[in-house]
Amino acid sequence: MQKQRLEGKVALITGAASGIGEESARLFAKNGALVVAVDVQDELGEKVAASIGSNKVTYHHCDVRDEKQVEETMKFTLEKHGHIDILFSNAGILGSLSSIFDLDLNEFDNTMATNIRGAAAMIKHAARAMVEKKVQGSIICTTSVSASIGGTGPHGYTTSKHALLGLVRSACSELGAYGIRVNSISPYGVATPLACRAFNLEPHEVEANSCAEANLKGVVLKAKHIAEAALFLASDEAIYISGHNLVVDGGFTVVNRSTNCFAPVYT
C-alpha cells in the first residue's frame, strides 16, 4: 500500500469551514494528516469536522485578528497532538468593492487585520511551536493573483495580499535556519462562498466570469485545485521549496490580455 503523503503529520488550517480551507482539510486528512480546522463559522466548522471524522479532524474556534485566540489555538493543537508540522494560513476576507475616493478606512483596517495581521500572528506562534518541538515544518499562506497585480479585487484586499507575499518572503529568510519552509499560493478567481457573497453572485456566475477573463481555456478553477497545490507544498515532495509563491492562475498574471497578439487562429 502506498504511503500517504502527509502520514503522521499534524496540520492546522485556518478558514477551514468552507471554500479552499474546507477542501484542504478534507484532502489533508485523506492523505494521513491529523487536522485542526480553525474558523469563526462554528456551525459550519463543526459540520465539516464531523463529516470527515473526529478521529481525523478537530474543529476549533479562532478569530485570527485576536493574537490571544491564536496563541490559545496553538496551545490546543500542541496539547492534543504534541506538535505541529503544517500551518496553512488560509483565513481571509475580501471586503467591499468601492472606489478609492470612497474608501472606508475602518473596513480597510479590518481587512488588513484579518488578512495580514492574522497571518502574521499564526506564523509567529506556529514557528515558535515548530522550533520548540524541533519540527522542520511547512508554513503556507493563501495570497492571490491580487498579490501580483492591481485591479483584480478591492483596494484593501489587494493591499493585504501584496503585504502577505512580503511577509512570506521575510519569514522565509529567518525560518530557513530552523529547517522551516515558508511558501504561498496565489489562486485566480475561485467560486468560494466568500467570493460569491462579496460579489452577490451564484457559484456558476463567478466561474463564468473567471472563465471569460482567464488565459487558460477549457479548465474551470475549483477550490480542490488550490487544496492540491497546498498538499504539494505541505508534503515532503516540496522539501527544498521555500520562499516560493505558487501561482495557480493558468497564466493570468503573466499575459497582457489587452494586447495579446496570439489570438486563436485555429478552430
UniProtKB/TrEMBL annotation:
Pfam families per record: adh_short_C2
InterPro entries (UniProt xref): NAD(P)-bd_dom_sf, SDR_fam
Entry similarity comment: Belongs to the short-chain dehydrogenases/reductases (SDR) family.
Protein name listed in UniProt: Short-chain dehydrogenase reductase 3b-like
Source species taxonomy: Eukaryota, Viridiplantae, Streptophyta, Embryophyta, Tracheophyta
